[in-house]
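Lab meeting notes turned into a lecture example. A postdoc, R.K., suggested we walk through two folding results consecutively so the class can see how the record format repeats. The first protein's sequence and C-alpha cells come next.
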Amino acid sequence: MAVAMILTQFLLLLHFKNAESAKSTIALPGCPESCGGIPIPYPFGIGLNCSLSQEFNVTCRLSYDSNTTIIPVLEDIGSQPFQILNINMSLGQARVSFPAAGQCYNSTTKEEYSWYPPIDNRNSSFRINTEKNKFTVIGCNTLAYLRLDDSTNYSVGCLSSCDSQDTLNKYGSCSGIGCCQTAISKETNYFFIEFDDRYNNADVYDFNPCSYAMVVEEAEFKFRTTYVTTKVLGDIFNLNFGQEWPMVFDWAIGNTTCDIALKNKSTYACRSDHSSCFTVNGGGYLCNCSDGYEGNPYLDGGCQDINECVNQNACSKPGKCHNFQGGYRCSCPFGWRSNQNAECALNVALVAGMAAVLGFGTAFIIILLYFAIAKRIKLFEKRKQEKLKHKFFVQNRGLLLQQLIASHEDRTQNMRNFGLQELEKATNWFDNALIIGRGGHGEVYKGILLDQRVVAIKRSKIVDQAEIDQFINEVVILSQINHRNVLKLYGCCLETEVPLLVYEFISNGTLFNHLHVEEHCSLTWKHRLSIALEAAGAISYLHSSASISVFHRDIKSSNILLDDYLTAKVSDFGASRSVQIDQTGVTTAIQGTFGYLDPEYYSTGRLTQKSDVYSFGVILAELLTRQKPLISSSVFEGGSLIAYFRSAMQENRLFEILDPQIVNEGHRTELEAVAKLAEMCLRMKGEERPTMKEVEIRLEVLWRSNQQQIHPWRSQSLVERPLMLLDYNAGIDTETLLSEQSPHDEEIGHTSTYFNIDKEAEESIAIGR
C-alpha cells in the first residue's frame, strides 16, 4: 500500500512538472494546462486558485481502473464526480463520462437486483445538454424510467423488448429490439433511473442476464448486440464493459446576463481586450474571442490576433494579403480592384476607358463581353439557388408530398407549397414578438399572408430524421382530413433546411389554459358540454369516417384549441398513426403524455382506437373537476386525478370533487351522465370502453337535452332517459327530434349520421355496454 501511494505521488508530481515546463497559453500563470493529455483551459483549473470558482476546479488523479493512468475529474458540480473527456470553450460544453444504471436477474435466488447512479445539478452552473444526450435502455423485456423530478411523477419511459437471440441479431440496431432511445426534456438538472419491476429478463436469462439504462451522448453511442448477450455482469459502477459512457454538459459563468455582469468589472469573466460576451439560455453567460482573434477570452491578453495571411488562399490571385490586428486586407495590382469579398476583380471602368481610346468598336465588344459575363454569373447564381432549394425539397420529402397531392387531388386541392419569401414577409422575418407558442421542438408564429389571411406558422428549431418524419406524418394525416373541428392545414414550405407548416389561426388559446386558471373559469357548463361534443365528433371522425382510420395518440386538453366562439379544434398530429379502416390496432413505440396515456397501451405497446377513448375520458374528468391529471399528492390520492375520480364514483362522492362553478349552475343530472360516461371511457380494459362514436352520440343527446325549449317531453329529462329516444318501441316522436339541426352537424366533408344505427347498437348503448 505504501509503495502504491509513493508511486501515485511521483506520477502526479511528474505530470505537473511537465505541464509547467511550457509557458501557459490557456491556463492561469503557474497553473497546469492539461491532465492526462486533456487540455484544461481557464475558467477550469487544476490546483489552488487555478479556477474561476470551486465548481470549475479540476482534480488530477489516478484512473478508477488503472494505477498508472492520470485523469481529470470534476468534483464539485453535483451529486458525484465526473471524469472530463474534453472541454469546448466556444460552445460552453464539457463531455464527461458517467456509468450506466443496471438491473440483473439472479438465476439462483430468482430475484432481481439493480443499482441507480443519480445526477443532481440543480444548484450548479452545469446543465445536462438535452439535444446531444438521449435516454437509452439496453436489454430484453426492459422498461426503464428517467425520473426528472423528485416531487412529482414526471418521467420519460423507454421500452426495449426481444424474445429470442435470433430476433435480436435480425435487427441489430437501437430501434426498440434489444435497445431503445428517447429524448429528454429541457432544463433537466436532476434525474435518477428506475426499472419497472413488472418487466424482468427471467425468460431470456440464458442470453440476457442484465439490463442497462443511461443518459448518453447520442453521436458517440453505437449499439452492438453483445451489449445484450454478454455473460459478464461487470462492475456495478462501470457497467458498459470496461469504459463509462460519454455525456455532454452545458456550462456557463454565473447565472446573470452579460449586461448585468458588465456592471461589476471585478467579477466580469471576459478578461481579454478582444473578447465578447453572449448570454446563454437557462442563465449565465459565455465569452468568445472577437472576430479575427483566437485564444482564451477568460485570460488577460488571452485573445491573440489571427494572421490570416498565413493562408495562401486568403486573397485571390493576383491580390496581395496584408495582416492587421483583428483582420486583413487584400491589395490588387494596377488594373484590378478589391471587392467586398476581398477578391481582386478586373476594373471594368478602367478597361472601358482604355477601350474608348482604342476605338468605339473595341469598346463595344468589351461592353458586350462584360454583360455576357455578368449574365452568366447571374445565371450561375440562380442555378446555385435552385439546386439548394431542390436539395432542401428532396431532404424534406417533397417528392413524397407531390405524389400525395397528385393521388388525393380532391382532398388536397386547397393545400399549397408556400415560398419562403412570402412566409418571411408574413411574420416580419420571424420576429420574436409574433411568437404565439413554444415547444420542445420549435416555435409557432402568427402571420398575415398576402391574401390577408391570418395564419399560424410552425417552425422546428433543428432538423433531424425524427423531426422530418413527424413533419411528413402531420402533413399526410391532415391532407386527408376535412372536418370543422380539426385544425385546418393550409400548406407547407419546403425551400429551407427547416420545413414550415401553415395552419389556420385559432385566436382563443387552448382548453387547458381556459380550465386551469386561479380565478373564475370563463367556461360555463353549456360551453364545456359543447366543447366535449365537438372534440368527440372530431375524434370519432378520425377513427371511422375519414378515408383512413387515424389514431391521434396524444389527445389532451392542451391540444384542443378554441376560437373566438369557443369552437373546438383538435390539433397536433405529429405523433398520430394512420391505419387501414379494417385494422383494429398497431404495435408501436410508447408515445404520449403522462396523465392522459392509456395504461393498456403503456403496458402492452398495442395502440388502438380505445387508447384515444381513454385520453378523452381524462379530458371529461378535467371538464368536470377543473383539475390537472397529474397534481400534488396532497390534493389527490397518489397524485392522480383519475384514481381519485374513480374512487369518488365508486363511493358515490361525485359532487364532492366536481367544480363548484358548474354544480351551482344546477345541471346535476347532466353532470352525473357525463361523469358516468367518463368512468366508462377510463376503464382499464380497452374492450370495456365505448367507441368514440358511442361517446359522441351520448354527448349529442345531452346537448339536445340542454338546448331544448318547450317540448312535449319537457316533463321527463332526456338525461334521465339516455338514448331512449332511439328505442323504436318507446312510442316517442323521434322523427321530430331528429329533424332538428344540431349546431355541431355542419361539417365540411362530413355529414352527421349520429342516429343512423341499428336497433342492436341502440340497445347496447342504452344499457351502458
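The second example is placed directly after the first for contrast:
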Amino acid sequence: MTTLDLPSNRAMPSTRGMNFFTADPNLERALGAYAEPANVERALPLLEEVGRCAGDELDELAAVADAHPPVLRTHDRLGRRVDEIVYHPAFVEMQRLGFSRFGFAAMSHRAGVLGWPGRVPHVVKFALSYVFVQSEFGLFCPISMTDSAARVLRMFGSAELQERYVPRLTSTDFGELMQSAQLLTERTGGSDVGASECVARLVDGEWRIWGEKWFCSNAGADVHLALARPEGAPAGTKGLGMFLVPKVLEGGERNRYVIRRLKEKLGSRSMPTGEYEFEGAVGYVVGAIDRGFGQMAEMINVSRLSNGMRAAALMRRALLEAVVHARGRAAFGRALFELPLVREQLFEMVLDSEAALAIVLFAAQALDRADGGSEHDELVVRIVTPLIKYANCRRARWTTGMAMNIRGGNGYIEEWVNARLLRDAHLGSIWEGAENVVALDVARAAMRNGAHEALFGELEERLGAVTTEVGRGEGAATRDALGGVRRRFEALLGASEDEREAKMAAMCDRLAAAVCSVLLTVEGDREARMGQGYGKLLVAREYRRRYLERADPLDGDSSVLRWLGELVDGKPVPASALV
C-alpha cells in the first residue's frame, strides 16, 4: 500500500493553522487573576493576533530556521576579517515579527507599542510572549537580552550611554534596531563567574578588554554587556566591572574582537551561539566599575524569568500537540484520548502546564509592583525568579518527552515539532545558570535578604482571600501543607552548609509545588466565584496531592480523569467533581 492509499482513519493530525491563544482557554482566565481587568481586555485582541501568527506563519518559519541554522563568515572575498553571521531568511523574518511587528523588546520601555497607552505591563508582556514562544524558543534569547540590556542601561548606565544606545535597543524599526548579547562565561570558571580572567586596562584614557568568552548567545550582536576585571582589581565577583562593548565603534571601524566559531548545539539551532576573543576591544563602563557583577545580576534575573516563561510555553505546546494527536488518532478501536493510561498522562501534563503558567504570571505581577517601588515585591521577585528557572525548566523536560511519547514514532521525527520542543527544553535548564546554581540562589535569596519571609507572607495573604466553600476547603489543606514546607525550608537554612546544599534541589521541588498549589487554589476560587466552574480547583487539589504531598500514585483517584475533556476545552466542571 502506498502512502496515497492510506485510509482516512490513519491520518496524522497537526496543530498547524490553529490559533494558539484561542486554543488555550486557561490563559485568559489565568491572566485575569494577575492583571488589571482593563489590561486584560486590552490584551485580548493582541493575544489573539499573536496566537494566530504563532500557530501558522511563525510555526512554519521556525521549522525552516531550525533546519537551516546560521553560519559564521569570518572573512570577505578580499581576505578582510568581518565575523559576519549569515542567517537563513526564515530567521530574519522571525526577527522582524518578534522585534518589529510585536515589539517584544520595546514594550517595557516605550509607550505606544502595539497601540498600548504607556508601557506594556510585565504581566501582559509575559502572556503575549508565552503564546509566541510556543512556536519559536531560540529567538526569545536575543529578544530577552536586548530587552534586559535596555533595562540595565536605564538603571545603571550614564546619561551618555543611555542616550546613545537605549533608543536603538528599544526600536521597533528593524533598520534602526540594535540587538544585544551578554558575555559572562569563560572556560576557566563556567558557573563560577568570579574565576573570570578577562582583563580591562585603561589605554590612552579608554578601557580596552583582553581575553575570551566561551559562550555568547546571539553572537554577532550590535552591542554586548560583558564582565571583565579591571587591572589591579581584587579576585572574585567583587572585582568585576561591567562594560558595554559595541560591535562597531563611533568612527565606523570594527571593534577589536573576533568570533572564533559558532557552537554546534542540541537545541535553539536557529539562534547563533559563539566563542569570542577580545584583542583590546573598546568597552564603556556601565555603572560603578566595582559593581559589575551585581549589575549584571539584574540582567540575569530578567533572563531567568524569561527562561521560566519559555519553559511554560514549551509545556503548553507539548500539551496541545499531545491532545490534538490523541483526539485525532485511534488504536485498538478507540480514540487515543479515550484510553485510560493516555488520559492519565495528559491529565498530568495539564497540571504541569497550568502550574507553570501560574507561577510565571505571579512573578510578572510582582515584577510590575517591584518596578513601581514595592520593596516587598522586590523580595518576592528575588526568590521566585531562580525558583521558576529551576522548577519550570526541569519539569518541561518531562512534559515535552511525554508529548513525544504520545505521538510515538512521528514524535521522534524532525518533521514534527516534538523533537525541537524536547531539545529546547533541555537548554532551558542550562541557560542563565544550571539547576544546581539556581537552586542555591534560592537559598542565598533567603539567607541574605529574608526573601522567603516575603514569599510565604504573600502566599498566606492570598489564601486568606479565598471565599467560596469549595475553595476554602482546598485552601485549608494547602495552608497546612504550606506551613510544613515553610518549617522544613527554614530548618534547612539553619543546617550545615554541606547538608543545606545537598538537599536544596529537593527543597526547591517542594517549595515550587507549594507556591503553585497556592496560586492554583486562588485561581480556582476566582473561577468558581465567576461562575466558570470548579475545574481549576480540581487541578489545584490534584496538583497538591501529587506534587506537594507526594501521595502514592497507586492510591490516587482515577475518576478525576473523566473531566479531562472539560479541563482541556475550558468547559465547566461541577463542584461534585471534588467530592
